[in-house]
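Hi F.,

I've been meaning to write this up properly since the lab meeting, where we talked about keeping a consistent format for the predictions we share between groups. The idea is simple: the sequence comes first, exactly as it goes in, then the structure tokens exactly as they come out, then a line or two of notes. No screenshots and no reformatting. I'm using this chain as the first example so we have something concrete to point to.
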Amino acid sequence: MRRRDILKSGAITALAAFTQTLHGAVSDAIPVIDAHIHLYDPSRPEGVPWPEKSDSILYKPALPDRYKNVTNGLGICGAIAIECSPWESDNDWLVKTASSDPVIVGVIGDLVPGSPSFRKSLDRLAANSLFRGIRYGNLWSRNLSVDMHKLGFIDDLKVLSQAKLVLESANPDGELISALVQIKDKVPDLTVIADHLPNASTPQTAAAEKEYTQNLERLRERPHVFIKLSEIPVRVNDEVPLELSFYKDKLNSLWNIFGEDRVLFGSDWPNSDHLASYTATFNLAQRFAASKGKAAEENFFWRNSIAAYGWRPRLATQPRG
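Output, unedited:
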């Protein structure tokens, strides 16, 4: 998870309020599953490994009740909680916290394939149907492109696949995308979800950029691969553009590679608060999806998340696949 500089929020707040007036909720009351939020509680006796205490924007409890307040009126009916801690015990905390509120329809935890505790911990966690898989990538001083070659790593991913659970990546760059292609070739039935691609660290040379694009296309050719249009807003010269036109080319490029049946919505809340309000972040995604037509919008906002995660509804307002 990237650490972002804390921004001056006055201009962002004003623009977000204007945006909310224009786009209060997803069109035609399409239900929305947010496939990327984080839950944590710095007030716990043991504290949290992230965010840091110096982060005045993020260092406060991010729990389901607060998430529901932030998303009130936007049509959000459920969310997938993604790990934000390398502590193995926090998998149990996250599952317990998610179980306490039906707005959370799934959990992606943190386990290390190839570690002595992996299979035992996976068996325990997978006994709860909310647990949908693990996240591994350029996070917590890990490197998927290196670690995938360690003893037992691929074998444990095969166990993950056999359990019908997913591998989610973190903080993509060219090496990580290449690693995901290799992993899919070694474990073809494994469901892979690549997050934050709009904000990926893209190669700087023409040759490397070509290879990166080709690897994205190779990923698309493999079955059971999904991506998230999460981390859309970016900072440019101390400002955060909130006009869709600024992001549309990159979003269209990813959409055209993977197609409307492989792309998910994710907000990255509350990490996204460093850049824009939830409403402003959501509305960028909503306006983009609306330009693709209602069927594609439904896929983006909820159908594809069921196909990817296999989550089950816990509330009457949550859609059935």
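Notes:
The two ends are 31 Å apart (CA to CA).
The longest strand covers residues 76-82.

If this format works for you, I'll send the rest the same way.

G.
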